[in-house]
């Protein structure tokens, strides 16, 4: 089971910020995290959502739903950030 963290707005939408979830792929982790929360599922699938796997930012081009997730992995999702 992987540790899943939701930062910023995503945690607010979900009502939690950290959980241990079953899933062998990124797609399965996203589905487990979203559950029946369609709004959260939409945000987790959005290309601007940050995906951090074991403290390394995963670029959109490398984060397919088939990306393998191990039981000792930590997967974090964050709202996009902007600056100016």
Give the count of structural domains.
1
Oligomer: single chain
Q: State the end-to-end distance.
A: 38 Å
Looking at the structure, what is the overall shape? globular
CATH architecture assignment: Roll
Percent in helix: 25-40%
Helices and strands, in order, run as: EHEHHEEE
- Give the strand line-up of the largest sheet: 2-1-5-3-4
Q: According to CATH, what is the class?
A: Alpha Beta
Tell me about the biggest sheet?
5 strands, mixed
- Using only C-alpha atoms, the radius of gyration works out to 12 Å
Please name the fourth-level CATH homologous superfamily.
Answer: Beta-grasp domain
Number of H- or I-type helical stretches? 3
Write up this protein.
This protein is α+β, with helices and mostly antiparallel strands and 84 residues long. It has one domain: Ubiquitin-like (UB roll), CATH 3.10.20. Helix content is 27%, strand content 24%. The chain has a 5-stranded mixed sheet with strand order 2-1-5-3-4. A hairpin with a 2-residue loop joins strand 3 and strand 4. The longest helix has 9 residues. 21% of the residues are buried. The mean pLDDT is 95.
């Amino acid at each position: 089971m992987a540790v899943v963290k939701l930062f910023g707005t995503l945690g607010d939408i979900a009502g939690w910020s950290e959980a241990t979830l079953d899933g062998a792929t990124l797609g399965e982790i996203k589905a487990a995290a979203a559950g029946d929360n369609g709004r959260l599922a939409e945000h987790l699938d959005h290309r601007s959502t940050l995906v951090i796997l074991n403290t390394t930012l995963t670029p959109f081009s490398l984060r397919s739903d088939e990306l393998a997730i191990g039981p000792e992995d930590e997967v974090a999702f964050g709202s996009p950030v902007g600056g100016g």
